[in-house]
Structure formats: structure tokens, C-alpha cells
Amino acid sequence: MFPRMSPMTRHLFVVSVLLAAQFGLLHADPPKPTPDVKADIEAIQKAMLAGRTDEEFIKKNGEKRIAEWRKAAETGSAEARFLLSRCHEYSIGLKRDGAVELQLLNKSAEQGFALSQVILAGIHLQVATDHDRAESFKWFRKAAEQGNAVGQNGLGLCYQKGFGVKQDDAEALKWYQKSAEQGHAMSQNSVGFYSSQGRVVKQDIVEAVKWYRKAAEQNFAPAQWNLGNAYSDGRGVKTDPIEAVVWWRKAAEQGYLDAQNILGFVYETGDGVKQDHAEAVKWYRKAAEQGHRLGQLNLGVCYSVGRGVKKDDIEAVNWIRKSAEQGLANAQSVLGYCYATGMGVKQDESEAINWLQKAADQGHPEAKAYLSKLKKP
Q1: Which among 365, 374, 320 is positioned nearest to 344, based on CA atoms?
Q2: pLDDT tens per residue, range 277-328
Q3: Beta-carbon neighbour count of residue 136 at 10 Å?
Q4: 330-370 residue pLDDT tens
Q5: What is the rounded CA–CA span in Å between residue 134 and residue 180?
Q6: With 248 labelled, which of 94, 161, 271, 356 sits at a CA distance of 20 to 30 A?
Q7: pLDDT of res. 29
């Protein structure tokens, strides 16, 4: 029973009780606020826009932030579930556990969190079965349709490569463009590629360079490589070998293999830099040791002539062979010559013919000529 109140007072009292219950004002202890993970998510999104992963952020911040992320995840936060899944991925504060990681990602993705959808799409894409590619396409589309630039880039890739959907360059470019306009470096590089090749759109090298530059200035190595090539060839910009080297070096210092090899070449030739054979060998070696077949051949040639390094025919053949085994016709031809002449290996005509034939089958003119000479009775 209510104490004596006027009808209006009683009505207002009832309303106030209902509102208090609705907003939790009658709890003995006020609810703890959900820990704020917004800044963490924004930092990761910024890295992804520049074409990097979340690994650096998680490894740097995961251990000190994981307790807060756990609390937020317990309240059902999709963002926090994403962050915890990445801790499992990189073994930061949590044991690496693929099953738990996927469970967290799936929950977060089903809640509509775009970054989880993007990571889930990437995981499915790596499996490469038809089913997984279809799943990858599905999740990229969900993220893309929310306006997520990483998801738009992934969806563009699916259309470009025909992953989980019929190949469609026009649709690929549409999504790359949406992503690029949000500042996504990888998409900017892709838009530049489409413009340079004249695929879907009219060829426009100046437009291509504009997009390569946007991505390159975000430190995206493939775009730095492309911009360096533009300056080297004078395509879309005035030829400038010095500026070409500036951009190639930026890419090379990030481990981009083509750029490391070309940096070796410009030091060998003195094009855009002061000639320095030892520096050339240094860059060839960086590329070669990571499996770059042209870098391996170039390093082998340096050993064979003693340029920038002490002459060593055995070491020369070692690097030339690595390149030849990766199918580089020039290296196969040179290796054939080594066997024919006994340079760095025991002379062996049958091995010489074997390697020369491999190069000749790829249309290598010198290999064809030398092979014909060896086969003459």
C-alpha cells in the first residue's frame, strides 16, 4: 500500500520507481563502466590503413592492456573480443590457441565488428579451398558494406582474383577506389596499378603516379617501388634517377626484395648514386639470402668476376645454381656454361646440356646458340 498521496503524486512516484529500475539506479552498487577500448581500436585501424598489421600494436601494448580487454570482453564487447583474439594469435599475455582465437573472432564478427570480419576473411582466404574463399568473400563484403577501408580492399582483391566470386576488374576497382579514398595504402597502390595498365579505366600514367605517391608517403613498400620505377623510366613524371633511388631505398630498407636487388644494380652501375661495388654486393646479398632469384644471379656474377667481393668461382656457382633452380633462364644458361667450361664445378657436358636446354626452352637466345654448338658432332 502507498502512503497517503494525491493521485498525481502517486503517479509520479510510480513513474520514478520504474525509471530508476530501468536505469539501474536502485542497485546497491552502481555498475562498473565498460573499459574503454576505443583508443586501442583506433590505433590498430590507423596501422591497417597504412598497409601494416596489428602485430606491432598488440606486442607493444597487449600485456599492459589485457586485463582491461578481458573486463570489456566479459560485458560482451565485440571490440574487446577482437583484441583478445589477437593476443591469442601473437601469444601476448595468453597462450597461443587457434580454436579460442577463432571462437572470439566469430563472436565479434557476428556482432558486426568490421575488424573481426576482416581478420576472419583473411584466415579463410589463406586456406584457399572453394568453401573458404566463399566465406572470405562473405566476411569482406560485410566489413566493406560498413565502410571499413580494410574490408573494401579485401573485397576488391576477391573481385580482382576471383576469390569466392566471379572475377570482375570493374567491381574490383570500384571497391579499391572506395578504400583508397579513405587513405588505405594498399588500395591506393592498386588504383595506381589499374590506371597504369589501363584496365577498366583509360590508361593514365600521371593518375597512377598520383596514387602510388599517396601510398608511398604512407611508407607502403610496393608503392615506393612503383614510384621509384616511375622516376627511373620517366613515366608520369620527369626522369630522375636520383629520386628513383630515394624511393627504391625506402622500399629496400623495409625488406622489399625487388628494391634491394635494384639498389644493388644502381650501386654497381653508378646510376643515381656514386658507384660502389661493395655496396652493390651488400644489397644483392640481402635480396639473395631471402630467395630473390635475380639477386642470387647478380651475387653469383659478382663472385665470378671478383667485383665488390673476393673472386670465388665455387661461391659463384652456389648462388647461380640457387637462381637456376628457381627457373631463371639467365641463371640456367650461365650454370650450363659453368658446367661446359668447368668454372667452379667439375666439367660435365651432360649437365651443361641439361641446364642450357632448360634455358633454351624458355627462349633464351645465348643458351640456344651455345647448346647448338655443344651438340655439333
Answers
A1: 320
A2: 999 999 999 999 999 999 999 999 999 999 999 999 999 999 999 999 999 9
A3: 26
A4: 999 999 999 999 999 999 999 999 999 999 999 999 999 99
A5: 24
A6: 161
A7: 40
**For the CA atoms of the chain, what is the radius of gyration?**
30
Please classify residue 90 by burial: count the beta carbons closer than 10 Å to its beta carbon, then call 0-12 exposed, 13-18 middle and 19+ buried: middle
- Nearest CA-CA partner of 239 in 225, 229, 250, 251: 229
Q: Tell me the three-class secondary structure of the chain, residue by residue.
A: CCCCCCHHHHHHHHHHHHHHHHCCCCCCCCCCCCCCCHHHHHHHHHHHHCCCCCHHHHHHHHHHHHHHHHHHHHCCCHHHHHHHHHHHHHCCCCCCCHHHHHHHHHHHHHCCCHHHHHHHHHHHHHHCCHHHHHHHHHHHHHHHCCCCHHHHHHHHHHHHHCCCCCCCHHHHHHHHHHHHCCCCHHHHHHHHHHHHHCCCCCCCHHHHHHHHHHHHCCCCHHHHHHHHHHHHHCCCCCCCHHHHHHHHHHHHCCCCHHHHHHHHHHHHHCCCCCCCHHHHHHHHHHHHHCCCHHHHHHHHHHHHHCCCCCCCHHHHHHHHHHHHHCCCHHHHHHHHHHHHHCCCCCCCHHHHHHHHHHHHHCCCHHHHHHHHHHHCC
Cell triple for 125: 582466404
284 within 8 A of 261, measured Cβ to Cβ: yes
Using pLDDT thresholds of 50, 70 and 90, give the confidence band for residue 35: low
**Three cell numbers, residue 28:** 546497491
pLDDT of 10 above 80 = no
